[in-house]
Amino acid sequence: MKRARGGDGEEAPRQNAPAGQRKSDQSDGDNSGCDLGQADMQDEDDNPGIRREIRSKYRELIQSVQQNREDMLSPSNNKLTEVLEEANKLFKDVRQSREAALDAQLLVVTSDLGKEKASQLAAEGAAFDPTAFTEHLVSILFIHVITAKVQFSRFSDHNGS
Q1: Paired sense of beta strands 11-13 and 3-5, if any
Q2: What is the pLDDT confidence band of residue 144, given thresholds at 50, 70 and 90?
Q3: Is residue 32 helix, strand or coil?
């Protein structure tokens, strides 16, 4: 194992863990409230069966999106959302770069499909025009303000003000 030199010439083992994890490794060993020890967590992270299962699920999702692309483009179909929710669940267990690469591949496939679905929706219906919407909203508010003023003046005239 390679070692890094400390300030006093003493060699210390190199650590590749994130800073927050290294600090916890250097603590006094009190893991109160933690059910799993570091060895158990390391075993879970290195378990080839679990890693293989995660990669397999990612591949199934990618294949499902590619095979059902036309169905997922339907405006009434929520399968794309379900796939993204499943991917979010899987991502919580991603620990290695191979799994992260599959997650990225799924993200590319689903984002392309989402873009295509959004453009299809815009082509089918009237596109949203923010200027027209704002003008319409202002006109409605203006009518309500005028109506409120008229009602207030009638009320104040009626009460003898």
Answers
A1: antiparallel
A2: confident
A3: coil
Angle at 130 between CA 114 and CA 139, to 5 degrees: 145
- Give me 2's structure tokens: 């390679």
The H or E element that residue 108 is part of is helix 97-124
Contacts of 94 (CB under 8 A, 6+ apart): 54, 100, 103
**What average pLDDT does the segment 73-88 reach?**
91
Residues 108, 114, 119, 122, Cα dihedral to 10°:
-160
CB crowding 142-157: b at 16 or more within 10 Å, else e: eeeeeeeeeeeeeeee
pLDDT of 14 > 50? The answer is no
pLDDT of residue 100: 93
pLDDT in tens, 117-127: 888 876 666 66
The pTM of the full predicted model, rounded to 2 decimals, is: 0.53
User: Under 8 Å CB-to-CB from 69, ≥6 apart: which residues?
Assistant: 113
DSSP state of 35: S
DSSP type of residue 126: P
